[in-house]
Amino acid sequence: MSGEIVYFEVPGNNVEATREFWGTLFGWTFTESNFPGYSMIHGPSPMGGTPHGDSGQHPRVYFGVDDIAAATARVRELGGTAAEPVTIPAGAFANCADDQGVEFSLFEAAPSQ
What per-residue confidence (pLDDT) applies to 1? Predict the structure, then answer.
């Protein structure tokens, strides 16, 4: 597992207000993704996104892993929680929390073709 931050999400109940704030603050641009209700954030590295209507209070970080199944099992062994992985075209991710309730996500990239 590399543990590098490979993606992030900024929540926002009001997508226009979210775009205005973060776009003005950092100069980011936003485009609709091919996933309904989701915008991609362009400008930062790594790239990010914003789920429309998300009432979360904190950005979510995604840490890269080589094997999502092994990584989620390890989170559970260490006393954390890990949802079952969700497969998307870019790979697979799982939302998790450490043993103190701090939320994060794991991401395994799809194999290059």
Answer: 54
CA–CA gap between residue 82 and residue 70 (Å, rounded): 11
What is the tens place of the pLDDT at every residue in 39-75? Answer: 999 999 999 999 998 888 899 999 999 999 999 999 9
Q: Domain range spanning residue 83?
A: 65-113
Where residue 107 sits, what CATH number does that domain have?
3.10.180.10
**Counted domains in the chain:** 1
Burial class (CB in 10 A: 0-12, 13-18, 19+), 109: middle
Q: Is 21 left (phi over 0), alpha (psi -120 to 50) or beta?
A: alpha
Contact in structure between 43 and 64 (CB atoms under 8 Å):
no
Q: Position of tokens 């892993």?
A: 65
